[in-house]
Write a sequence for this structure.
C-alpha cells in the first residue's frame, strides 16, 4: 500500500488531502521509506532531509485538518536538483570544488515559490558536475543509475530527478536544461519533462551557460507538470531575463486537445541518425496526433546540425565556470569538464559575436517555420539509455556528450518550449521519448499536446521493475 501511495500524482494527492482520505505526513513517511530502500541502488539523491520533510509534512497536515492549505502544493513531496539554491541545504553542484562551509541562506526563485505553496521539500537530486553533460555521474556523488536497468544511465544532467520521478521518490522534481538536461532523463527514464520557454521560470543566480539554460518540471503526469509550472513561473525580480508574468494557470487550460492544430513531424531534423526501434516508436507516436484531430505533416525546419554553434556558447560557458574556481582546486574537476573548458579557451571574442549573429539567424528560421506549424514532433533522443561508465554510448573513447543528443540542444539555442513524453519501450524494456516543441512562449500548446498524447496512451507511463527489498 505504501508503494502505491508513492506513485500517486501530485494532483491525486491534493484531491485525497482535500477529501481527508490521506495525509501529507502519511505520504511523506511512505516516500522517505521508499527512498531509504532504493537510493542505495539508484543514487538519485545526494542530500536527504527527513527531519525537515517530516516537520513540513506535519505542518501541512495541521493546515489541511483546519481546511486552510497554503498555496497550491501543500503537502506534495518535491525534490530540488543540486544546482538550484535551497536555503538551509548546501548546493554543491556535484563538485568537490564547492565548499559546503557557506551560509546557504537563499532560495532560488523556483524553490522559493514551491516552498511558499506548501511543497514538502525532500532533498537534492544528483547531477553531473555543474550540470555539464548528458549523463549523471560526478567526482563528488558517483554514478546515478536508471531504474529500468541499473547498469544503464538515466541520462542527465537532471538524471537524479528523472530516476526519482519514475521510481516513485517524490511527485514533483525541479530540473534544469541547458542542452537537453530535462528532456534527456525524461526520455531515458520514461517520465514527462518540460523545458519551459526561456525566461518563463525565473532563474537566480544566472547559469554559467547563460541564455541556453532553462528550468522546468519533471513529473509522472502532464497535469502535475502544468500545476508545477504554474507555481514555478510566478515572478521574481532577481531574474533580468524573465518573461513578463502572465498569471497563467496551466492546469486550467491543459485539456484543450490538439484538434485543428498544424503539427510538423521530423524523423531526424534532417541530419540525425536514429536507432531503428526508436524511429519506429516515434513515427507511430506522431500518427496519434492525426487520430486526435490534428493535421500532421512530415517537415524539417531546414537547418543543418547546429552543434558547432551550440558549442561556442556551451564551451565558453564551461571556460567561464572553471576560471571562477580556485586554481588550487581545479584538479578535483571531472576531467571531461576540464577538457571542455580547455576547448572553450580557444573561442575568441570575435568567434563569440559571430556565433551570436548566427544564433539570431537560426532563431529567425525556426520562427518562420512555426508560422506554418504550431508544434514540431521529433525523437527526444536518437537512442535508448546506454550503459553507465561513459559520457557517450560508444564507450570510453567517445569525446562529447552532445554528439549523441542532436535533437535537444537546438531548442536551447532558440529558447522554445520543448517537452519529452514517453512513447513506448524497446524490446529490451528501455523507455523511448517523443519530443514536442512549441512556438516561442507557447508553453500551453506543448502541455496540451503532452496531455492529449498521455491520455491516448496511458500504457506508456509505467512503473519500473525495481525491487525496494
Amino acid at each position: 500500500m505504501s508503494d502505491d501511495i508513492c506513485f500517486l500524482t501530485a494532483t491525486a494527492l491534493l484531491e485525497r488531502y482535500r477529501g481527508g482520505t490521506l495525509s501529507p505526513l502519511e505520504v511523506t513517511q511512505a516516500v522517505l521509506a521508499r527512498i531509504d530502500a532504493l537510493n542505495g541502488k539508484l543514487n538519485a539523491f545526494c542530500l536527504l532531509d527527513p527531519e525537515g520533510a517530516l516537520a513540513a509534512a506535519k505542518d501541512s497536515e495541521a493546515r489541511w485538518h483546519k481546511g486552510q492549505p497554503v498555496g497550491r502544493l501543500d503537502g506534495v513531496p518535491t525534490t530540488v536538483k543540486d544546482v538550484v539554491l535551497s536555503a538551509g541545504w548546501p548546493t554543491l553542484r556535484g563538485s568537490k570544488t564547492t565548499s559546503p562551509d557557506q551560509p546557504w541562506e537563499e532560495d532560488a526563485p523556483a524553490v522559493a515559490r514551491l516552498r511558499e505553496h506548501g511543497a514538502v521539500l525532500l532533498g537534492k537530486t544528483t547531477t553531473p558536475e555543474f550540470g555539464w553533460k548528458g549523463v549523471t555521474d560526478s567526482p563528488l556523488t558517483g554514478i546515478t543509475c536508471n531504474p529500468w536497468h541499473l547498469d544503464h544511465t538515466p541520462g542527465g544532467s537532471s538524471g537524479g530527478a528523472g530516476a526519482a520521478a519514475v521510481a516513485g521518490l517524490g511527485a514533483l522534481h525541479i530540473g534544469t536544461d541547458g542542452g537537453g538536461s530535462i528532456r534527456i532523463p525524461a526520455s531515458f527514464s520514461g517520465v514527462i519533462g518540460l523545458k519551459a520557454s526561456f525566461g518563463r521560470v525565473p532563474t537566480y543566480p544566472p547559469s554559467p551557460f547563460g541564455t541556453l539554460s532553462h528550468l522546468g518540471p519533471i513529473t509522472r503526469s502532464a497535469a502535475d507538470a502544468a500545476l508545477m509550472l504554474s507555481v514555478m513561473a510566478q515572478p521574481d525580480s532577481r531574474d533580468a531575463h524573465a518573461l513578463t508574468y502572465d498569471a497563467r494557470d496551466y492546469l486550467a487550460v491543459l485539456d484543450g486537445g490538439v484538434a485543428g492544430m498544424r503539427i510538423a513531424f521530423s524523423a531526424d531534423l534532417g541530419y540525425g541518425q536514429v536507432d531503428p526501434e526508436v524511429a519506429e516508436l516515434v513515427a507511430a507516436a506522431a500518427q496519434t496526433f492525426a487520430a486526435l484531430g490534428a493535421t500532421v505533416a512530415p517537415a524539417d525546419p531546414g537547418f543543418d546540425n547546429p552543434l558547432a554553434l551550440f558549442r561556442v556558447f556551451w564551451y565558453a560557458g564551461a571556460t567561464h565556470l572553471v576560471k571562477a574556481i580556485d586554481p588550487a582546486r581545479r584538479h578535483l574537476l571531472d576531467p571531461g569538464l576540464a577538457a571542455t573548458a580547455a576547448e572553450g579557451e580557444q573561442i575568441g571574442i570575435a568567434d563569440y559575436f559571430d556565433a551570436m549573429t548566427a544564433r539570431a539567424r537560426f532563431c529567425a528560421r525556426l520562427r518562420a517555420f512555426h508560422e506554418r506549424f504550431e508544434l514540431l514532433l521529433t525523437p527526444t533522443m536518437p537512442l535508448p539509455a546506454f550503459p553507465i561508465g561513459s559520457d557517450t554510448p560508444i564507450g570510453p573513447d567517445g569525446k562529447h556528450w552532445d554528439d549523441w543528443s542532436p535533437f535537444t540542444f537546438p531548442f536551447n539555442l532558440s529558447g522554445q518550449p520543448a517537452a519529452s513524453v514517453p512513447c513506448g519501450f524497446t524490446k529490451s524494456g528501455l523507455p523511448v521519448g517523443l519530443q514536442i516543441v512549441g512556438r516561442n512562449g507557447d508553453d500551453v500548446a506543448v502541455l496540451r499536446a503532452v496531455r492529449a498524447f498521455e491520455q491516448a496512451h496511458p500504457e506508456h507511463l509505467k512503473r519500473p521493475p525495481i525491487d525496494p527489498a
Summary: Residues 18 and 67 are 8 Å apart (CA to CA). The two ends are 15 Å apart (CA to CA). The longest strand covers residues 418-425.
